[in-house]
Amino acid sequence: MKEESFKSIDEDLRNLAIDPDVLEKELAAELQGDPLDDIEFEVFNSDKNKISNECELGLKWLKQGHEERLQGLRVFCEHRDKRALSLLIPLLSEPSPVERMSAVYALGRNPSPKAVDTLLELLQSDSNAYVRKAAAWSLGNYSASPVMEPLIKALHNDVAAVRLWAASSLAEVGSTSIEKAEAVVSELLLGLRIDQEPLVRSNCIWSLGRLYEKVLEAMKLELTEGLFSILLNDLEPSVRYEARVALEQIQSPEVVVRLQRLVEDGFLL
Fold first, then answer.
1. 147-269 CATH, one of 3.40.50.410, 3.40.50.720, 1.10.8.420, 1.25.10.10
2. 266 — alpha (psi -120 to 50), left (phi > 0) or beta?
3. Structure confidence by residue, pLDDT tens digits, 44-91
4. Beta carbons within 10 angstroms of residue 252's beta carbon
5. Distance from C-alpha of 68 to C-alpha of 131, rounded to nearest angstrom
């Protein structure tokens, strides 16, 4: 995921229990208004002794009531500990959307093959968009599992915040093989052409840049042409900028020459 996306998800993970009442509200079909994206970033603690103590507390909290479980979930959204897995997976079925969402994030930080089926169910059918958004992110850490098709479906059909994270996670999935990379690139190019949300298009571009070296020459050409089309035609300046950055990072003499000509002809500054 691009740098600002990493920062955004770390903000999400570090502050899950700050305002449960706000977090339990349904996310609208707009990206605006998601409180998880606006909370101040905190630096991860690297003190091993302190981490060990926090994990011990987290394990105890996960076995207690709702408020304590939220505190425990917050711990394992930050830290990895295999002992937490058996306690985290059952929380995916909790009635509270905050607990489900927090458990999903924690199982992204602490992946477990036993969680895949339930995470996929949440991505595809949970009524709360916060939970689906969390699942779209977490499933990027399960790239060896059959998560590609559900993430593609989310990319094309869910609300904007879920589509955004699906686009990022698909880069991880596509990185596992040429076949998956080619399939993912085709879907990302489609999303890039039709999605109405600029931030989703930007994340599609970022993922396409990640996958450029993973695909065959014919797909590289299609990918490049798609980025040049966005560079010249997208109505959103930030998306055009992302396309230019992605093209500049492609190690292709032909791409470099085309960019130079666009500058010389006055199409680019």
1. 1.25.10.10
2. left
3. 445 777 888 888 889 999 999 999 999 999 999 989 999 999 999 999
4. 13
5. 20
